[in-house]
Amino acid sequence: MENKVAYITGGTKGIGFGVAEVLLRNGVKVAFSGRNKEDAEKAAKLLSNDDSQVLGISSDVRNFEDEKNAVSQIVQKFGRLDYVVANAGVGIFKPVDELTMEDWNSMIETNLSGLFHTMKAAVDELKKSEGYFISISSLAGTNFFEKGSGYNASKFGAVGFSQAAMLDLRKYGIKVSTIMPGSVSSHFNDHEPTESDSWKIQPEDIGELIVDIIKMNPRSLPSKIEVRPAKPQPNKF
């Protein structure tokens, strides 16, 4: 993995930031995006003082042109792209009769269309490197629950999209894996992690999982992975 290049969407905090930390420790050069330029630049400085190893980018995955520009910046700086971790996501949890059009569009455009935009923007570079595309979905992509209609729809779609894309792209040497975490200690849905979240999956755990699957023998492809807390709280995934 030394000197390979990764792009992580939604990388300024939470899972994305944890994945970036682990990849950097494994010698990977890391680019990541967030909607806010200042947040991206701040996170880059927190990750490393060496700007030859990290790149913070302002990009909204809902906008395909943003993602094309992000990939262009990465290739211009690092010369290649080997790994993409499509992590950007939002969740709004309401009964379906209370879910607004804005709520629905926000989740579908970010969690599903954003995933397509990221893959579409990166696929030509991944063909060159025979790289790896990893989508961060959720156990909500296979387990429906009350107040989850919009989120479930976006994540069921994200799993279906990623698995079909895996079949399309493996003939080019590109691997596609879908990781489906349960409860993660992150800033998702405006949550602020505390000590009470210690039972949850930690962001760096997802990073270590990604390193493990990248390092697998190239003849094998773990196409869909569910990961849960080992000791969950009652009524939690």
TrEMBL record:
Transmembrane segments: none annotated. One of its GO terms (biological process) is monocarboxylic acid metabolic process. Gene3D superfamilies: NAD(P)-binding Rossmann-like Domain (3.40.50.720). This is Short-chain dehydrogenase. Coiled coil: none annotated. Belongs to the short-chain dehydrogenases/reductases (SDR) family. PANTHER family: 3-OXOACYL-(ACYL-CARRIER-PROTEIN) REDUCTASE, 3-OXOACYL-[ACYL-CARRIER-PROTEIN] REDUCTASE FABG. It holds the Pfam family adh_short. It comes from the Bacteria.
